[in-house]
Amino acid sequence: MVIVMKKDATEKVIGKISDKMTSLGCEVHKVQGKDYCILGLVGDTSKINPNQIKANINVQDVLIVNHPFKLAGRNFHPEDTVIEVDGVKIGGGNPAVIAGPCAIESEDQLMTIAKTVKASGASIIRGGAFKPRTSPYSFQGMGEDGLKLLKKAKEMTGLPIITEVMDEVNFDTVEKYADILQIGARNMQNFALLKRAGKSNKPILLKRGMSATIEELLMSAEYIMSKGNEQIILCERGIRTFETYTRNTLDLSAVPAIKELSHLPVIVDPSHATGRWSMIEPLSKAAIACGADGLMIEVHHEPEVAMCDGAQSLKPEKFEKLMKSIEKIAKIK
Ligand code: PEP
Ligand code: MN
C-alpha cells in the first residue's frame, strides 16, 4: 500500500500517520520528493483500512498494491490446492464432474439419474434439497427427506454427494448428510453463513454471485478460510450482463484469472450460466480447455416435467456424450 500525502502536510502529521501504520503491524518507508511525500507500507497490511486513511484531510491518495485476500491468494500459497472427498480429487489437473438434478423430486427420480450419471463417469452427485427460488410459490425442495434420498444415492453409487445449504438454521442438518456443502450464488455474500461454513470440517463449493467481481468471490472464500476451513472449491456460474438470450453470461475468463490469483480449485457450471441445455456441451469443452478443475452439470431423465431448471438439464444420453468429449479435451490439454 502506498500513501500519498498532500503537498502541505506537515512533518508532524506525516509522523503521526507513519506511527499509526507501524502500530498496525507494517513497516513504513518514507520517500520525500520535491513536492510530495509518499509512505510505502510493506509487510502485513491486512489490518489497515484504506478508506480510513483516505478520510484524513492530509492524505492525497491511497494506492493498493496487494490483493486484499491472503489465505485464498496464490502469493501466500503458490501450489494448487487439491481437495479430496472419498477418493475423488478436485484440483490439480483431473477434471471432476458433478452431475445430477437441480432439485431432488422423488426417490425414483434421484435414483434413476444417479445411476445414469455414475454409468457415464460422473465423480460426484448433486441434488438440491433446500432450493433458493426466485418465487415463493415455486417448489422449495424436499428438505431433510431429500437429504435422506441423497444419502441413499450415495450408498447405491458409491459416489460422494453435494447439496446446497441456504441458511445457518439448516446448516447442521445439511452438514450431517453432505460430503461437500454448496453455497449458492445468492448467498455468496451471506457473511453469517460464510462464517458458519468456516467452522465446518467439510469442503465448501462456493458459487460466484451473479453480480460479484472475482475479487469479491475471493474475499468470500477468505471469510470461510479465516474461520479455519481451507477446503474451498470456487465455481463460476455466469454473471448478469445486458444479454438476455442466455440466463446469465458465462465468464470463462474467471477461470484463468482465478488460477493466477488463487491456489483454490475452480469449476464451471454451464447449466446455470446459460439456462439452455444446447449450450452445455460446447461450454463444458471450453471450460476444460481453459483450465477448469471440473464441471457442475444438471441432468434430468425427463427435463420436460422437471420441477426446477428442466430447460438447462441434459438428458442422460446427452450427458454421456458430453463426458466422452471432455475426456478427449482433458487429454490434449
Ligand atoms: C444450483 O446449483 O442449484 C443453484 C441454485 O445454482 P446458483 O446458486 O449458481 O444459481
Ligand atoms: Mn438449478
What structural class results from the helix and strand content? Answer: alpha/beta
Number of helices: 11
Mean pLDDT comes to 96
What is the CATH H-level superfamily of the largest domain? Aldolase class I
Distance between the termini: 38 Å
Biggest β-sheet description? 8 strands, parallel
Instruction: Identify the overall geometry.
Output: elongated
| Integer tally of domains | 2
* Uncertain ranges: none
Q: Level of helix content?
A: 25-40%
Order of strands across the biggest sheet? 13-12-11-10-9-8-7-14
CATH class of the largest domain: Alpha Beta
CATH architecture label of the largest domain: Alpha-Beta Barrel
Proportion in β-strands? 15-25%
Number of strands: 14
Q: Output the helix-strand order.
A: EHEEHEEEEHEHEHEHEHEHEHHEH
Bound molecules: phosphoenolpyruvate, manganese (II) ion
Rg is 23 Å
- CATH names the topology of the largest domain as TIM Barrel
Give your account of this protein's structure.
The protein is α/β, with parallel strands linked by helices. It has 2 domains: 2-63, 2-Layer Sandwich (Alpha-Beta Plaits), CATH 3.30.70; 83-332, Aldolase class I (TIM Barrel), CATH 3.20.20.70. 34% of the residues lie in helices and 19% in strands. It contains 11 helices and 14 strands. It has helices at residues 11-23, 50-54, 107-119, 144-157, 171-177, 191-197, 214-226, 254-261, 270-274, 280-289, 316-332; strands at 2-5, 26-32, 37-43, 59-63, 83-85, 88-90, 96-100, 124-126, 161-164, 180-183, 204-207, 232-236, 266-268, 294-298. The protein has an 8-stranded parallel β-sheet with strand order 13-12-11-10-9-8-7-14. Strand 10 (180-183), helix 6 (191-197) and strand 11 form a beta-alpha-beta unit. Helix 6 (191-197) packs across helix 7 and helix 10 (280-289) packs parallel to helix 11 (316-332). The mean pLDDT is 96. Manganese (II) ion is lined by residues 102, 272, 298, 308-309.
